[in-house]
Amino acid sequence: MSYLYRLVGIAGLILMGAMASPVQAATVVKVELWDQGAAAQMATNLAYPVDQAAHDKATMGIKTSVDAAKAGVVTFQVRNTSKDTVHEMIVVRLDKPNQVLSYDAKAQTLNEDKIGYIGEVEELNPGKDGTLTKALKAGDYLLICNVAGHFAAGMWTPFTVTQ
pLDDT tens across 66-107, in order? Predict the structure, then answer.
């Protein structure tokens, strides 16, 4: 009889495991914050939405392992590969593609209260890592660096979240 009870117990555990709601794993996006060094001439006219040909000439930028993810939990694993410059990564949700963002020319930064701010990996020293995990809805996003002058120097990249 005890064999039968064990068998029924095991079958019950298997059934409960099969009926349990699946936990959605986060999509992992590796992000590299890069530049050509502090001595490189930093552009001031490459703020989003500049055309791709001009953006390709930037001396600093953001590179991602993928440019899109499905809606849900997304983890950004961020690494500052610069040898001498502090960078950060901010996730911004766009209301529409090619949207001009609120930029303070005097401070050389975006107004984070007016740009669809979602979250960030704050200033990373050269060679350091950080992580940001957020639940993202389908839509158009930008990953940006908002250290003074970096956004206008081309340090941004589009990111799409699909259904």
Answer: 999 999 999 999 999 999 999 999 999 999 989 999 999 999
Nearest CA among 86, 97, 98, 89 for reference residue 38: 86
d(CA 63, CA 162): 19
Helix and strand numbers, DSSP H then E, in the chain: 2, 11
Confirm if 81 and 34 have CB atoms less than 8 A apart. Answer: yes
What residues contact 147, with CB distance under 8 A and at least 6 apart?
A: 85, 86, 87, 88, 109, 123, 155
The alpha helices in 20-115, defined as continuous H runs, are: 52-55
In single-letter form, the type of residue at position 34 comes to W
Q: What is the pTM of this model?
A: 0.84
Distance between CA atoms of 99 and 95, rounded to whole angstroms?
7
Q: For residues 145 and 79, what is the distance between their CA atoms, to the nearest angstrom?
A: 12
